[in-house]
Amino acid sequence: MPKGRILTPDERLVIVREAAKGADVKGLALRFGVTRRTIHYTIKREKDRRRDTGVRTAAASVTVTPDEIKAFDAELARHGFDSRADGLRALMQATNGIFVPDEHLANELAGYRAALNRVGNNITQIARRLNEAKKRGMPAPWSDKQYEEIRALAGMVLEMGDQIDLLVRRRNATMTLTVTNVLREFALGTQ
Q1: In 10 A of CB 26, how many CB atoms?
Q2: What are the domain boundaries of the chain?
Q3: Would you list the DSSP string of 2-42?
Q4: Which residues of 114-153 are buried (b: 16+ CB within 10 A; e: fewer)?
Q5: How far apart are CA 188 and CA 183, in angstroms?
Q6: What is the pTM (predicted TM-score) of this model?
Q7: Cα 122 to Cα 102: distance, rounded to the nearest angstrom
Q8: Start-to-end C-alpha separation, the chain
Q9: Separation between Cα atoms, residue 183 and residue 90, nearest integer Å
């Protein structure tokens, strides 16, 4: 099996389609000349991409009175929603404990994602160098100062993860409170 083979975008699509039809991972790996791990990663990457791009495949509907829909539309307009679908989606996500990011939060998370991607690439390079040195029976290919920099990098990643967690928890708490109040108002029939 060739080492370091990179799949083309078309091959990735075929792998995802075949896996969805129930194709064996081992068979796909042999067919495309890659490892099983590459196949698993390709499938996971596609699932993550679909989740991140918001591919929606399920529908929900409810029958309400004209007064209920009028009150709901007024609430949506007051909170700045452009459509009923957006408002219902926000309510569903909030009640599931998933925050609906506002523009500021989305920008913050995009910045964190970019920073973590850069750090992840650096860590991958470090791991490769360590593995190569280990295979050759050589000591780590850097100085004590560089080792301390790596430790600082790891600390930064952990701190960044804590900051993201805190940011998400704060936003989630705010959304939960808002959704609870809105749902309570609708349940009591007040506006």
Answers
A1: 10
A2: 9-52, 66-188
A3: -TT----HHHHHHHHHHHHTT--HHHHHHHHTS-HHHHHHH
A4: eeeeeeeeeeeebeeeeeeeeeeeeeeeeeeeeeeeeeee
A5: 9
A6: 0.33
A7: 30
A8: 65
A9: 12
Q: What is the pLDDT along the chain (191 residues), one digit of tens a residue?
A: 445 678 888 899 899 999 989 999 999 999 999 999 999 989 988 887 776 666 566 777 888 899 988 988 888 888 777 888 877 877 776 665 444 456 666 677 777 777 777 777 777 787 788 788 888 888 776 777 777 777 777 777 777 777 777 777 777 677 666 666 666 665 555 44
Give me the residue label for tokens 């996500």.
93
53: DSSP letter? T
